[in-house]
Amino acid sequence: MSKPALTNSLQDIISHAKEYGFVFPSSEIYDGLQAVYDYGQNGVELKNNLKTAWWKAMTQLHDNIVGIDAAIFMHPLTWKASGHVDGFNDPMIDNKDSKKRYRADQLLEGKAEEYTAAGEAEKAQALLAEMGRLLSAEDLAGVRDLIIAENIVCPISKTANWTEVRQFNLMFSTQVGSVAEDSSLIYLRPETAQGIFVNFLNVQKTGRMKIPFGIAQIGKAFRNEIVARQFTFRMREFEQMEMQFFVRPGTEMEWYSAWKETRMKFHKAVGLPAEKLKFHDHEKLAHYANAAVDIEFEFPFGFREMEGIHSRTDFDLRNHQELSKKKQQYFDAELDANGKPYGNYIPYVVETSVGADRLFLATFCNAFTKETVGEGENEKERTYLKLHPALAPIKAAVLPLVKKDGLAEKGEAIAQSLKSSFRTVYDDGGAIGKRYTRQDLIGTPFCIAVDYQTMEDDTVTIRHRDSMEQERVSISELKEKIGYQVSMERILENI
């Protein structure tokens, strides 16, 4: 019998992620590099499974969405056209006493959260609205005045001795070329979307795609964040899963609403509970958008953005057309209400963009479970990862009761027979109870116990991770029974 799950802190989650091979600090033997992380042997499996689920949900479930893999390095004019060179900035403010640097908007958002927690939601909304107005007007002096008026102090020095607010460009730059004098300035891409936009016509023509259609991509992006924090939530090197959906102008809001609902279904399908998800409409729109909403997840540090859905208008394609002098138009042969072809136009775009690292963190936080099991003297705390079986790094573990009397050889043969269908491990080290616990801690949904009865009738015991219940099944049934539960199809059928 289990009791309600215990409350988990972010530090508990970070410690578990490192101890069980999910996430390591990068370059740890050299004391690490701030806001850069490496995925360990179990973490890379979980992250790859999440990426596979997203990729299949986009390209396998939709006949009109295809994928690409664009280069990280792009011509520098790409970022001029996109607005990143001139406008990809965060408002930065320093505390003169602590010498610590902060994002001005995050300080104000933190104050708004305090108001919300105190039951003053209207005050919080008013503060966010005023911040949005000042940032839209690029009134940085007004932003500083607002921080002071709200009595916001540095969490380290506890003083309000603030510098002026300054804009800080987030792009990493480097040089390309074999000789320093002949090299050219280029950037590490701050987003993956532009690789899709510059390939819009390549994909449309070679794939004979008709509007509406989408292009999906998974790839690394890089941002020189002022304040990188909260584990893998905000990093300087991260991975995005983006889909740009090209539509006829005037239909973008219909598609925007449709993709909002479709993407929310995805997050529920991978196992995130509805009560920990919500939409958050943007107070301040990006320069390219006419509508924007975030799907937020309730992390241990509060509700935060996990995915953004944006109506980007024709901003990107139009700017690329103007700067490159290459037409980025689509000829629409379908007839309008007057019976005439829609003709040439620059499509509008609806974007869905989810951070692979943030989705990983949300999934890991949600799965990390501590609960009390047993009664009286037998009561103890149990920790396990309640991952969707299709996402678990290891799907099944084969555990012989003992190493002797042929049980080990039988177990190895069973594990080998399952490996071509799903990721299976064999473990005969230590007491079987401890082996169950080892698999629980990394989220393995099924443990297969090989005992003396197995040698008599070719049956084994399957132990289910979440309930700890056990059932006896024939070895011949294992591949189909477990394979069904761990199939990616179990996720896709719920989208």
TrEMBL record:
PROSITE patterns: AA_TRNA_LIGASE_II
Recorded GO MF terms: glycine-tRNA ligase activity
Domain Aminoacyl-transfer RNA synthetases class-II family profile: 125-393
Protein residues bound to substrate: 103, 191, 238-242, 351-355
Catalytic reaction list: tRNA(Gly) + glycine + ATP = glycyl-tRNA(Gly) + AMP + diphosphate
Chief location bin: cytoplasm
ATP-binding listed as a keyword: yes
Enzyme class: ligase
Entry-linked CDD domains: GlyRS-like_core, GlyRS_anticodon
Keyword Repressor: no
Signal peptide: none
Annotated EC: 6.1.1.14
A Pfam family hit: tRNA-synt_2b
Complex and partners: Homodimer.
Annotated protein name in UniProt: Glycine--tRNA ligase
Originating organism: Emticicia soli
Gene it is expressed from: glyQS
